[in-house]
Design brief:
alpha+beta; seven-stranded antiparallel β-sheet; three-stranded antiparallel β-sheet; 20% helix; elongated; ZFYVE21_C; Zinc finger FYVE-type containing 21
Length: 226
């Protein structure tokens, strides 16, 4: 184990080399823990094609699900940023497809969230609203809202998230995201607070940001349910 700048460290596990925060409390809320591998003695056959393992047919563990497969069923190496692996790692066909789909979030939508969007923000039942820029923090743990005032929402303290739409788009296409309704617990409080965000002037950018946030919510809930 060796330390590197920016509060991260390199850790070598049986699955591969990982770059993780020095303090586990600062893990990304989208991250997943490494699975426990199915013990070798409990998998005499491939858990996909039922091929029996022997001296020639070696067993391999999928780094995402921990199950045991033959080389044919677990030969592909796919990037897995949710577990902080430095290099692509061996995954079964099913997990590899999931990881490839998630890469769209890391390659595109995460950049949109970090870039931010402009919204009209209303806190609680207040009749006062403020135009603010909302963006995801660099460590992915907070939503930063900046206008005349500034406040933060920790993603791990969001209890529900609803994307608001403006009906059908021109030409009868699918509806476009126009806002978001959050319920979260502020730090030091057990009482839920409501936060309403509606797209301001640049509705296209706001809609893209909201669509990315919708995908982020799915990853967030999956990580919580792990």
């Amino acid at each position: 184990m060796s330390s590197v700048p920016d509060g991260k460290k390199l850790v070598r596990s049986p699955s591969g080399l990982r770059m993780v925060p020095e303090n586990g409390a600062f893990n990304s809320p989208f991250s997943l823990d490494e699975p426990q591998w199915v013990p070798d003695k409990e998998c005499p056959r491939c858990m996909q094609c039922d091929t029996k393992f022997d001296f020639i047919r070696r067993k391999h563990h999928c780094r995402r699900c921990g199950r045991c497969f033959c080389d044919k069923c677990c030969s592909k190496k796919v990037v897995l940023p949710r577990m902080c692996f430095v290099d692509p790692v061996r995954q079964c066909a099913e997990c590899g497809l999931v990881s490839q789909k998630e890469m769209e979030f890391y390659d595109k939508q995460l950049k949109v969230l970090l870039g931010g969007g402009t919204f009209v923000v209303t806190l609680g039942t207040s009749e006062k609203s403020e135009t603010m820029t909302c963006r995801l923090s660099n460590n992915h743990r907070y939503l930063f809202l900046d206008g005349e005032s500034h406040f933060e929402v920790e993603l791990s303290r969001i209890s529900s998230m609803q994307i608001l739409t403006d009906g059908t788009s021109p030409g009868g296409g699918t509806s476009r995201a126009s806002g978001m309704l959050l319920h979260y617990k502020p730090m030091g409080s057990q009482d839920a607070q409501q936060l309403r965000m509606e797209a301001a002037d640049d509705k296209k950018v706001a809609s893209l940001w909201l669509a990315a946030m919708h995908k982020a919510a799915k990853l967030l809930y999956e990580a919580r349910d792990q």
